[in-house]
């Protein structure tokens, strides 16, 4: 049986993007990027919404200017199953060989995916993750806190949840980004 985790890069005030939808301020430094590569090892599937999937399609095609870390990330990304929850994408829009489209994120189907997994299932994107967070299905929360206040945008967590969490990992990176890894009690 696997576990369900939610990972997000957020501003100090809790947003994944600013009021204009921009998230360029959240780009990782080399040490954070390397950590993302390492943390992918136990992940067997990613559950993503349309916007996140379209953003991550970048990793499906090798780029001439990639270094070794970018290539390794892409290789690992391509091996992970991608479950794309979208009512607007068509099956032909899913270009990942390990991807599949579901019209909506059904919590029973998500629970079965987690039960059948050998490792972690990572749910990626606050809108996609919100129903699972509200239902108490997420066991691990990883927040990469960027030392920036953006004042508004898309919140990393839904407003209507009450979570009791234990801190299980704390790490500060060279550029001031801090990882807070919490586990639900």
Structure, described:
This protein is an alpha/beta fold and 185 residues long. It has a single domain, classed as 3-Layer(aba) Sandwich (Dihydrofolate Reductase, subunit A). The protein is 26% helix and 28% strand. It contains 5 helices and 8 strands, in the order βαβααββαβαβββ. The chain has helices at residues 30-39, 50-56, 68-79, 107-116, 126-134, and strands at 3-11, 43-49, 81-85, 99-102, 120-124, 140-146, 165-172, 178-184. An 8-stranded mixed β-sheet has the order 4-3-2-5-1-6-8-7, sandwiched between helices. A hairpin with a 5-residue loop joins strand 7 (165-172) and strand 8 (178-184). Helix 1 (30-39) runs parallel beside helix 3 (68-79). The longest helix is centred in the middle third of the chain and has 12 residues, at 68-79. The two termini are 18 Å apart. The model has no long low-confidence stretch (mean pLDDT 95).
């Amino acid at each position: 049986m696997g576990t369900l985790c939610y990972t997000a890069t957020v501003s100090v005030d809790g947003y994944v993007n600013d009021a204009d939808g921009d998230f360029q301020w959240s780009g990782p430094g080399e040490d954070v990027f390397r950590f993302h590569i390492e943390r992918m090892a136990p992940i067997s599937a990613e559950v993503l919404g349309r916007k996140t999937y379209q953003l991550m399609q970048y990793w499906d095609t090798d780029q001439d200017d990639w270094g070794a870390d970018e290539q390794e990330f892409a290789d690992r990304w391509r091996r992970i199953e991608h479950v794309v929850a979208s009512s607007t994408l068509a099956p032909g829009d899913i270009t990942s060989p390990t991807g599949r489209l579901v019209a909506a994120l059904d919590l029973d189907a998500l629970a079965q995916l987690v039960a059948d997994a050998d490792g972690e299932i990572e749910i990626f994107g606050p809108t996609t993750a919100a129903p699972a967070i509200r239902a108490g299905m997420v066991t691990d929360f990883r927040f990469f806190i960027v030392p920036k206040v953006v004042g508004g945008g898309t919140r990393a967590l839904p407003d209507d949840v009450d979570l009791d969490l234990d801190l299980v990992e704390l790490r500060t990176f060279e550029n001031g980004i801090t990882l807070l890894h919490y586990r639900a009690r």
